[in-house]
Design brief:
This protein is mainly α. The protein has one domain: Four Helix Bundle (Hemerythrin (Met), subunit A). Helix content is about 80%, strand content about 0%. It is built from six helices and no strands. The termini are far apart. The model has no long low-confidence stretch (mean pLDDT about 90).
Length: about 180
């Protein structure tokens, strides 16, 4: 294996880890779910760091990384909803934002004639939102092992909901700017 494919291999590992994370959550094996999700989270940080540090960035990697993130997070959120740890309104909000981003990205590439070789990159707010969503999954699993006061869970839900809405709005703003700049050309 070529060293330049390490970031993509880490993203693929994160995709593969989605199944055992979901299964351990469904089976209420929270400690194992926590460990697996932490490993997946570490691969998320490592793949980007390695790609940037060693100039291994690629078009495939710019697609694989967010797909791996979305697959792991959405699967985890759906599972957390199914087992009664995540409210339906927050699941709906997260899902709606993700559908909007996928649709908007495809529309933006088609509508603005963006080059196929251009790397996809998340906005800063999206990176913050992803970090908060990962933290929420970890938080919901940890409190199954060590329960805390309900108010902290509500605060975390509202924080993630806020970052989800702001991140979605940020993407809409980016797309509007891109369309306007294309029309000026």
């Amino acid at each position: 294996m070529n060293y330049s494919s390490v970031p993509n291999a880490l993203s693929i590992l994160r995709i593969i880890l989605t199944v055992p994370v979901v299964m351990t959550l469904l089976n209420q094996q929270y400690f194992l779910a926590l460990v697996l999700f932490l490993v997946a989270g570490i691969t998320d940080g490592l793949d980007g760091w390695i790609a940037k540090r060693y100039s291994f960035q690629s078009r495939l990697g710019s697609i694989l990384d967010p797909v791996a993130d979305k697959l792991l997070l959405v699967s985890s959120f759906i599972t957390l909803y199914v087992i009664g740890l995540l409210p339906a309104w927050l699941l709906f909000l997260i899902f709606l934002r993700d559908v909007m981003i996928v649709s908007g990205t495809v529309g933006c590439f088609i509508g603005t004639g963006t080059s196929k070789d251009e790397l996809l990159s998340p906005s800063k707010l999206s990176k913050i939102n992803t970090a908060l969503q990962i933290a929420l999954v970890l938080f919901l699993v940890v409190i199954q092992l060590h329960p805390i006061q309900e108010q902290w869970t509500t605060i975390f839900f509202v924080t993630v909901a806020t970052s989800t809405v702001l991140s979605g709005a940020d993407y809409v703003w980016i797309w509007i700017e891109k369309v306007i700049s294309q029309e000026k050309k």
